[in-house]
Request: fold
Amino acid sequence: MTTSIVPQLIVSGAMMGLIYALVAYGFQLTYATSRSINFGQGELVMVSAFFSLTLTKLGLPYWLMIPGGLLFGVVLGLFVERAAVRLALEQKSEGWVLLTIIMGLFFFSAAENIWGRDDQPFPTPITSDALHVLGISITPLEISVAVGVFTIMGLIELFKRTTLLGKAFEAVSVDRDAAELMGISTTHTVMLSYGLSGLSAAVAGILVSPITTVGPTMASVLVLKAFSVAVVAGLDSGFGVVLVGLFLGSLESLTSYYVGSGWREAPGLVLLILALAVRPTGVFGKAVIRKV
Amino acid sequence: MKRILFIHGAELLVLVLLACIPIAVKNPFVLGLLTLLAIYGILLIGLDVTVGYLGQINLAQAAFLGLGAYTAGLMVTHFGLGMISSLFASLLAGLAFGALLAFPALRLEGPQFALATLSFSALVTIGLNEWESVTNGAQGLQLVRPTLFGLELAAQGFYWLCIVLLVFVWIAMNNLLSSQWGRTFEALRDSPIATDAMGVGTFRHKVAAFALGSGLGGLAGGLYAFNFQYLQPQSFVYELMVILLLGVVLGGRKSLWGALVGATLIVLLPNLLSNRFLFQVFSIIGFVIALVAGGRSYIQKTTKPFQAGAPVVAMGMLVIVAIFFPNIEDLRRAIFALMLFSVVVGLPEGVMGFAARFLSKLFHIAPAPLAVPVPLHTVLPIRDPDGSPLLELRQLKRHFGGVRAVDGVSMLVQTGHIHGLIGPNGSGKSTLVNVVSGLYKPSGGTMLLRGRALPHGSLFRAAQAGISRTFQNLQIFSELTALENVMVAMKGVYRKSLPFVLFGLSHKEERYAQSCALALLEMVGLREEARITARDLPYGAQRFLEIARALARRPDLLILDEPAAGLAHPDVTKLIEIIRDIHRIGITTILIEHHMEVVSELCDVVTVLDGGLVIAEGRPVDVKRHPKVIAAYLGANA
Reply:
C-alpha cells in the first residue's frame, strides 16, 4: 500500500487541479477580450453551486438542473460585467480590480444569508464507489470532473474557432482597436466573454460540489489556487492552465500529506510569486514587446 | 501665507483636539477608539503610498499589519525587548518583507500586482496559523505591553505615544511625498517607460515606495499588538484588507488627510453596525447624498447614467437592509460591499479630494507662489561644438523574429549637429532610436557614445550615459503638472539622501529645481501653463513639454522622435524655433521627421533609411536628389 500512496495522491490531486484549471480558464476568457479578470470568480462558482443545489431540492432531476445552473452562471457573469467591469474599462482605469472584489464580497454575504453558513452536501447520481486501476483507486465522481472540464473547455474552444461570433472574440483578443474598426463591437464581445466565464464558473461549481460540499467559504480557497494556475500558466494559454492545474493539484495533495494539511495552499502561492518574479507573462505565455 | 496658515492651522487644530480629548473625556471606550484611529491612520498613510501614488491595488497591507504585530509580540514575549525597540523591529519587519515582495512584484502592473499581493497575504495568514511553535497558531498570542524607557504606560499614555508617532509619520510622509520622491512615484504610475528614459530609476523608487508603505504597516502592527495585547491570525485576513481599501478610497487617495478620514471611518464602522438606529440614520443620509449628487450629475450630464444611478441603487439597497433586516451584523460584508461600491463609482476622488476642491474655492486659497526662473544658461550652459564624433553606430542590427527592422546600420553623429533620420514608414527609424536609447537590445553591432560603449537594452542606463529622448506616441506624466513633469527629469539637482528628505531638509534644492524647470518651460513657451495638469494641455503643448522634460536631463545627445507629428502649422513653426534654440546651445540632436521642410531647414546631415539599411547620407539638398531616396519614397520606377 505504501508504494502506491504517491501515485494515488497525485491522481486525486490532479482531479482537483482540473477544477482550478477550469476556474483559471474563466480568468483567461475575460482577460483575452478586456485585459481584466474577475476577482470574485470564486464567488460565482459558489453562488452557482448553491443555486443548482436549490434547483435540485426543488425536485429537478440532476440532468435538468445542470442547464438551469449554467444559465444562472451566465447571468451572474453578465451582471459582473455590467456593474463592475464596464465602467472601469470605459475610464481606462484599474478600478475593476476593486469593483470585482466588491462584487465577490457582496455575493459572499448574500450566499451566507440566503443559504446559511454551513457546508451542505450536494447530491449527485454519479457514484463515488471507487474503481481500482493499476493499484490506484479512482471514483467515477472524479472521472466526471475530468470529463466535464474537458468537455466544456473543448466546446468553448470549438466555439471560438469555428463560429463567426467566436472569430469576433478572437479578433478582439488580438487587437481591440482593429476589431472595433472592422465593425466588431468590443462591448458585446467583452459581455460575451464574461458570460462564458460565468458559464465555466457554474460548471466548476456543479462538478466540484459533490466532492467538496457547498459552502460560502468554498470560494476563497478555490479562487486563490485558480489565480496561481492562471498566472503560472500565463493569462493567454488555455493549454497551459490544464497542465499547470494538474501539476499544482498533485503538488498540493503531496504537500498536504507530507507537510501538513494546513500548508496545502502554500505551494500554489509560492509558485505564483516565483512565477511572477521569474516570468511575469507565465510559463506558457507570450512575451510582449514594449512599444512606444 | 494664507495657504500656509490655513493648512498648518488645520493640522495643528486637529492635533491639539486629538491630544486633549482624553483629558476632557474620561471614557475608556472613547480612548480605545481614538487609539485605534491613530494606529489606522499610520496604516492607511502607508497603504496610500502604493494605492494612491503608485496607483497599484495593494492587497497585502493587512498582512503587513499582522507581520508587524506578531514581530512586536514576539520581541516582547521571546526576547523581552522594550517598547521602542519592539516598535522599531516591527517597522523593520514591514520594510524587509515589503522590499522582499517588491522585487518580484516590481515588474508587474495592474492585475498581476494585485494577485501577487493577494497571494502574499494569504501566505502570511497560513504562516501565522501553522507555525504554531512560534506564533501559537490559531490559539492566539498573549502579550503584555512593555515599558517605555522603564515607564509603565497606561491606556492614556499609550494613546499619546500613538499620537506622537502619527505626527512623526505625518510630517515625514508630507516631506517625502512633496519631494522628488513623491513626484517620481506618480511618474511611475503614469509612464514607467518615460520614467526610465528620464534616468530616474523605476527600480529603486518602486521598491522604496512599496517597502516604505509596508514599513508603516509594520509599525502600525506593532502599535496594534501593544494596544490589544492579544493577537490572532484571523484578525489580519482578506476582510480587513477590503475595509482598509474602503478607508483609502473613501478618504481620498494621495492625501494624508484622506488617510485620517478613512481611518475615522474604519474605527467607527463596527460601532455603526452594532447600533441599528444609528445605522438607519446614516444609511438614509448616505442615500440622500447619493440621490442629490447622482441626480445633479445626471441632469448636468457630467457622468453617464450608470455612474450617476448605480450609487443611488447601492445606497438604496443599504437603506432597505437597514430598515428591514433585524440583524445587520450578519450582513456586514454586504454592507461593506455596497458602501465601497457607491464610493468607488460615485465619489472616485474620495471625501478629501472633493473637500480640497471645495475648500480652496470657498476660502480662495491661492496655490503656493512659484520660484523665479533662473537664466536658461545656468540650466543649459552653452557648449562649444568641436565637431568631434559623438555617437557612432557600427553594423547595428535589431531583428524581431524573422523581421529585420534594423539590419546593419552604420552612422556617425557629430557633436553640435542636428542629424536628421528619415525614411519611409517601416524603414526602421524608430527601431533604430529605440535600440540607441536602450528600449530594445541590439541583435548585433556596436554603439559608441564619445568612444565608449553604450549600455544595451536599458533605458535607464542609456539615460545615465547622457542620452535623452522624446516619444513618437506621447509618454508624458499625465497626472502631474507641466512643471512637475520637467522637475521629475531634472538632473543634478537632487542631492539630499532619503533621511534628509524625510526630515524636510531638502526645501532649498526643491526650490532650485523649480527655478530650473521654469526656465526650461519658458524656453518652450509653457511658463504660463506651469501649473496645468499635463493631461489638460493641448496636444502641441504636450509635445513641447516632452522636449522641455528631455532637456532637463542636460543631455549630450537629444533624440526627438517625430516631434512634428500631428502638429498644426503654427506649432510646427514654433517647434522649428525651439530646435534652433537647442542647436544654438550646442546640444547634439537626432531628429526623426517626416516633414521634409522641417528636415531641410534644420538638419546639418541627413541619414536615409529603407528596409533597415542606410541608403543615403549627406546634406539635405544632396540627399533629396539622391536616386535611391527618390525611389524609396516614390516607388522603384519613379
